[in-house]
Amino acid sequence: MQFTLCFCVLLCALGRRVEVGDQLHNAATRASEMQQVTSVARQEDDECRMPVDVIFVLDGSTSVRTDDWDALKLFVSSAVMNFEIGDDEARVGIVQFASHARTEMNLTDHPGKVFRGINTLKQMRGGTLMSEGLGLAKDMFTNNPRQARRFIFLVADGDVDAASLPLAREIEDDLGGIIFSVAVGTNAQIDALRPLASHSTLFYEVDRFDALEDIVKQMTTTACKASGENLGVGVSELDFDHFSGEEKNDEIVEQVSIQTDLVDECFLDETFAKFNPVFEHWTMLAGLAERLIYEEDVTILAIFQSFVKDKIANISAKLASVQSPKMFAKSLGKNFRTAVAKVNLEEAQLTAAEIRDFMNLGLYNYVDRGTAHQQESLKQLEGDLCSGMKTFMKSVAAVQSPLYQEGGYLWHMWQEAWGPVRIFVKVTTQCKVDVPRWEDANNFLSNKQDQWAQCKGAKPFPEGQFPSSVMPCARADDEQDASAARGPAIDRNRMIRFLGCGASRVRTEPPVVGQLTDGCLQSDRPEIKAFMTSLCGGSDISKRECDIYGPFWGVYSAPIESIYGDASYEKKMDCQLLNSEDPHACHNPQVEAFKGMINRAASDYIYGALPPLAESRSRGWQEGIDSAVTSWEPDMAYPLPQQRRLDPPLWEIMREAEEGNAVMMISYGFSGSGKTTTLIGDSEAPIGKGLGVDGLLSLYLQDNAQKISSVQINIFEVYGRVRASDGTLMTEDGSGLWAYRVQDGEADLLGSAAAFQDSNGNVDFDALKSELHKPSYTVTLTDSDATPPAVSVKLLLTKVEKLRQNARTFAAGGDPIAHIRGTVNNPKSSRGTLLVLTTLHYKSGMTGTISAVDLAGAEDPGTMVGGFINFMGHENNPQCTRPGTGADADMIQVHMHSMHDYDQMNSQLGECFFLREMLVSCDPSNPAPDCIDITLSNGRRSMVRPDSTRGWIHKSKRAASQHSDWTFTVGRVDVTFTHEEVMDAYAAGAPKGLSSFKKSTSPSEFQWGEHLWGRCIRSSKTGSCSTTQGARLDKLALDKPLKKNEYGFEAKACKDILTCGVPKTLIQMSGSERGKQFRNHASVSQWQSTRKRFFAELQAHMAQYEAQERVYTDDYELHLRYFTKAIGPLVQEAMFINEALNEMKGYLGVWAQHSKKAGPGVKLHDLWPPVEFDILGRDAQTIDSTPGSRISEEGYKPWKFIQSVSDGNYAKMLALGQDHVMLLTMLEHIRLEALSKEKDTKVLVGAFVRTDAPGADPNCDGTRASLRFAQDLSDAIGWRRDTPGALPHLY
Question: I want to staple 126 with a disulfide (CB 3.0 to 4.6 A). Which of 99, 760, 890, 1185 is the partner?
Fold first, then answer.
């Protein structure tokens, strides 16, 4: 790889700042040269491999200047390189003293830790209390006992306190320690430092710190020879005169000069062209070292050993004779690890990061421009970078051996040992952070994460729950403490624990009182055991119900502390108590999880790219700042690639393309889980300074730009729908293979499976190849283009995304429907499988391919549709309730075949469900790609698209907020009738036995309103109608109290006298007109006018209600028509997608098993047709919506193959070479293309899971489905979780 290998050196976690001024640069160069000489000398001296414990006791007082401190560190590095660090060999420790002393590094046998410890050493400053330093060294020997020679290298430039000499003798007499004493400079107290040495020949005097390197060889040679003496011989009895044969200074200088090739003139690009392959090779070697040391799968190790044993035998007979696969791997890995430490790869990585900035900023264009000072400083920067690269290459030359030169071959064999298919899990989260109106979105999201407070619209986990649906246990930097109490990080072994959400939540929460990773480590603690037991519920781990998933090849996640948001539950509670008035003061778990995913689990991390430098000399020069500082952001504490044992960078596999092989990257997950962005990138993401975010493909193109001459891109899509009624493919609606003419902004339907079949119905791969290779479907990018291929590929895919969002793109497929549509979980859910076939022409002459297979958003159709529809019971419609259940999910399963049928949904099922209200209008003159044109039954046309959800809408039922009560005012009194009261009166109709007097004062069509007029007066205490008083409105209209017994005239047949009758006080009760007419009285006129107004206002209220109801009815129809046109087809698409995915699982499993049987290097010419599908396809479900059928009773199961009522079993047809779904046809096409060149194909399958609870998936079923998919595939290729030792926590 190039220089964007993504990690952050452990040094950056400590805020390391690398000084690259002249003096340190020259000292570093001389130390590197010295390293070469002494390394060669050490290789010829077997005594240096004896067990030794070496402690450096260093003077860190103020008298030691900064440049002197750097030279002192280089001296320690040079000395250490002359010892073989490792088990049963050398251990190294460091103590520093000033006004007090401290242990900088305990005795360790890990080369990487030793050199990192040296490089990160910070000077204490202060006085000179040497005795305290010697005391710590003595304690270190005492506390780390073993059978080994012990040495102290003491370096000081000043005074010696009186307690130092007695301590030195104790170290010699009691512990057998041999002390070398070095006095530096004219101020050193020679007379006091000389006696501290165990022998006169072990005292050294130099005039300055940068001269220390001149004595390295003599000191280490003496120590190496002394280490070979019997441990029973005391220090005073050793013959140091014999050991310390002095080397001539001029001989050392001569050897150094021979190997020195630094020149004043340097061309950065030419030097980089030589540096980069060496850098990549050793980065790869470093990764292989750690994989070999820490891998626990004996099967993998045994396969690897069988592949490489003949090659190793030609290099090292001793190593080849090791029989145990685990011991063989560890021995080889430790050998590589030691070599990697000696070449100082970490320093080269920091240099590479600075070179990246230099090149990306185009500073080579400014070498002869600007002021004299600017030109000089830029020349200095370029020279330092050249020297840094040359220093690294010289270090490599000093340690080269045939074994290291075979690193590429050994790496390839390591990939072969794992087989053709790898499964990884990517943990992600969805979170929308509000950007203040006054902020620039890119700047706020990129640079102001400390101001992020809440996730907008995110559903929080209940208090007391670990705020995540999963607990990923894999990142190496989650647990660096390898103490006996906790065990090493490897103990977690690539595992994911599903905690669930809502109804699926685990019974026992993971323990978070102590370390958050407690639930990831092997333990006898009761709370951890209870948690582990709850995950499987006591069932066998091999059962589908068990929620511990793994082991996977890699698990990519933010560290657990990022997912949780705080170090512990107690810490979070304490924070809230201290900041009760500031809700944003304490970490919000969802915000912290989002930050963690962006910063520490993004595509850059998965790929393995370098994080951006926090301080860059190149950027400083561009901004007019003189800087000698290169450093990474301390918070970006990525583990180095060689430390990433459980989440290996994917570039390690993608580089197989450079050997002419094919790499296939496949992503699986529910919509909204980040598949497309991770694989391909997003040119329109708000983060990324206008270029969006990179995916694995664009990162690889960027990283290897200097190796690639041209890139050819072909983009195809497999799209399909299955009838939910009978399981047949809907070829008339665009099911088949589509090809994109990106430059023309068009998509062509190449045809369904029938278009690529021979006379026997089998797949005709030659016909397919001929169609796919048409020039109109190829976009060629070259390194001479104005826009780099890494950027162009993202822009191309953005164009394709816009095409896929537009239904009009797919008019050739019948009734057009967009292939990217919104779901509740994802506004841009891919409904087809996109295949981005990238052919890479390398300058080496090789041609390889990297294909990104972006699988359609996979979801259980019931879960997906459940985000848009909510079933309910209805007493008058038996279809609304499934006998014995009535659950919403069950009803969706029962009526799944009807989800696209407007007439059936509106008539038979119309009263059975609510629809999600979510549509907004589009601008017809400039419609967005996801707008759909809908015509209502009244002829009105609307163009709409989904947006934010606002609630639910029903055919006839209305929410309280959708209705208004009616208020009628009499005098100053308001009488309010609820909407339900008005509707009940309307439903009751005109009352029977209504008095003619009332009939004469009310419109006939509104006589139902008498139920409202005649409302009784209710008791304020009991709420029941008064048995004695009259109607409320009569009382108010007449402005006098009425008794109930005053009613009834002409209303004897009425059940409610107050409703049907009138007060007798209004009727003529004497003379010949008695009982036939109203009285001639002012009260009568008042009563009549009030009633006239009452019915007029009631009529107006009903007119308003009906108008509003027409709006609701139209809105309901609009949503239902949209649902059946855009959402209903999700069911048909989901069935197709799940069938394709299930076939792919089986195919990859068959491929892996064939490869394992064939052995390394054997090409699989007989993989197609996959005859194993004749057996795999037996357990299929028949899609038949007929009442009483099995699937209508048991429901559709996404993980099972489907069988059509008329077309048969699609999986079993594969065994005959017939592929109706066509996904396997495209995968096999990619494999055959590589096979035609006698090359292999490697497959990376990523399962994407979300830590949050999606809006339409309250039980996190999508996350569980993704994990089960990954587990099923892992089991299929032979890496099963129930294999003893695979998940050591459970055995």
Answer: 99
